[in-house]
Amino acid sequence: MSSILIIAAHPDDEVLGCGGTIVKHSNMGDSIHVAFLADGVFSRLGEEKLQENELARRRKSAKKACKILGVNSVSFADFPDNRMDTVPLLEITQSIEKLIDIHKPSIIYTHHSGDVNIDHKTISNAVITACRPQGKYSVKTILSFEVPSSTEWQVHGGGTIFHPNFFEDISETLEKKIKALEVYDEEMRDWPHPRSYKAVTHLANWRGATIGVEAAEAFMLRRHIN
Question: Residue 38: beta bridge partners?
Fold first, then answer.
């Protein structure tokens, strides 16, 4: 049994990025931990209008979605939504180091450094900083996932383009991924928006077709220690 840590900016990123893979880890009996670092609501409601019940509702949805996926624990930090670049990277890195110390993961899944969402970028950089392979280091593999409506919108010259080199067959777990995504229905959009159910399913089918299976999730391997 392995310990798996998913470090995401906002609730729904975990399902969009690696929901099918999480289910596979759960089916194998791995211990799975999801950490959300940004609150996910400040930028839309405005800090002055933010109500505690809205934040509680969002976190309740996250716990429900993670339960569907088979996650063992869910944690929340309070870094400002879509403003994580205003926080010293050291603070974010230290919060991730604490998570690593608690869960001692062998695999970390997190955001791609080239995403257009600033929280995704910041977390990706902080994860790499926190994962310096020194001392009693548990992390053997770091994988970056793609989040529709952020990862694919990067342009050449604007940042690192997502070129997947690691794939997970989710042919048997895509249905449960979509079921978990339905918990975040208020975050979904109508087709042809990339964060629509149809687009998410098409993406899984396309990633699957590129490796000869029905459905897959694609990742960029950042580091692997064998």
Answer: 79
- Are the C-beta atoms of residues 79 and 38 closer than 8 Å to each other? yes
Which residue pairs from 51-58 have beta carbons closer than 8 angstroms and sit at least 24 positions apart in sequence?
58/11
Burial of 90 (0-12, 13-18, 19+ CB in 10 A): exposed
Q: What is the pLDDT of residues 68-89, one digit of tens each?
A: 999 999 999 999 999 999 999 9
In 28-87, which residue ranges form alpha helices assigned H by DSSP? 42-45, 52-69
Amino acid making up residue 19 = G
The DSSP secondary structure of 197-222, one letter per residue, reads HHHHHHHHHHHHHTTTSS-EEEEEEE
Q: What is the 3-state secondary structure (H, E, C) of 126-160?
A: HHHHHCCCCCCCCCCEEEEECCCCCCCCCCCCCCC
User: pTM of the predicted model, to two decimals?
Assistant: 0.95
